[in-house]
Design goal:
alpha+beta; 2 domains; 7 strands
Length: about 325
């Protein structure tokens, strides 16, 4: 983003400079009032008795109804080993004062500073609390470390810098989110939501009419590589079905195949009313399915026989996988 000032920003600063202290205070009060009038998000998971532990410090955290993970303001201060209490500058919170100092501010991004200036106001039952999204903790810790490396921190801030190194060494952004989800109990709900998102992306509520998704050449290549004889009335050994299942359907996201088996069950003769691919969505489900077909067909084409194909499979998918197509069990 360019640092050049636009005519609009210059005009805005000029208007602000022309205001009296009373008028500026009035504007600030009106802005604060607007924030208070906006309904605050609610904490749906978490509580004082379900903190995460960072470097042996219990840190209160919550999951809001808009899925944001937040750490309370006091939790942030405690984790960074900063004193609680007022900022000693009217209108600034403690973290904002810390991040605004010349020793730290050059290393704090504009986006992070804006977040620190405007902590999230949220409801815990009937109470109101303030906090920050979990990423803010790690980003601020990284900024402090950069300032320390540059030699700009004061001696009394050495403990804060040390604690920030502990934070960044023990946590990643994703790891912190996972830690919060586990501590608050949100993990089980998150897993269900993510499962539903995958199934919605891959599966249709009802099957579509049959259409050709596996080209005839695919089956021809399987017969050639495995040395099977083919006749017009021969549907082939069931190994072919096992091959398609293991190398194509099992390569889709884990919940997809079990759901397909549920939606399209087999009868006592191991026959299904529809083909599994008839339940896949056009965009994501079939696209992924077809890409797997192409991959396997490429491996079939470059293989001279079954042993050669097995070597290619293991080289591509990993030798730890077991491909058992030698029986009809």
């Amino acid at each position: 983003m360019s640092d050049e000032q636009t005519p609009q920003s210059k005009g805005g600063k000029a208007r602000a400079a022309a205001l009296s202290p009373e008028e500026r205070s009035q504007q600030a009060r009106e802005a604060a009032q607007r924030r208070w009038e906006t309904p605050a998000p609610k904490a749906i998971f978490g509580g004082p008795d379900k903190p995460i532990r960072i470097a042996d410090i219990g840190v209160p955290c919550y999951v809001l109804d808009d899925n944001r993970r937040v750490i309370t303001m006091n939790g942030m201060l405690d984790t960074m080993q900063m004193a609680r209490g007022g900022a000693m500058v009217k209108g600034m919170n403690r973290l904002e004062l810390f991040a605004s100092r010349d020793r730290i501010k050059p290393y704090v991004s504009k986006e992070l500073y804006e977040r620190i200036q405007n902590p999230i106001r949220f409801q815990i039952g009937r109470s109101v609390a303030y906090g920050f999204e979990s990423d803010s903790l790690i980003e601020l810790a990284e900024a402090v470390i950069q300032a320390d490396l540059a030699g700009t921190l004061q001696k009394q801030q050495a403990a804060i810098a040390h604690q920030c190194r502990v934070i960044t060494a023990s946590l990643t952004r994703i790891g912190l989110i996972a830690l919060i989800d586990e501590a608050t109990g949100y993990q089980s709900v998150r897993d269900k939501n993510e499962l539903q998102e995958i199934l919605t992306a891959y599966l249709l509520p009802e099957h579509r009419p049959w259409m050709q998704t596996i080209p005839p050449e695919f089956t021809t290549e399987i017969y050639r590589v495995y040395g099977w004889k083919r006749s017009p009335d021969n549907r082939g050994p069931r190994y072919a079905g096992k091959l398609i299942r293991q190398l194509i359907y099992e390569r889709l996201p884990k919940p997809v195949l079990p759901k397909l088996d549920e939606m399209n069950p087999s009868n006592s003769k191991y026959q299904r009313k529809h083909r599994h691919h008839q339940f896949l969505t056009d965009k994501q489900g079939l696209d992924h399915f077809r890409s797997q077909v192409i991959t396997v067909m490429t491996l079939l084409r470059i293989s001279k026989n079954k042993a050669d194909f097995t070597r290619h499979l293991e080289a591509y998918f990993g030798s730890q996988l077991s491909f058992d197509f030698d029986n009809d069990a």
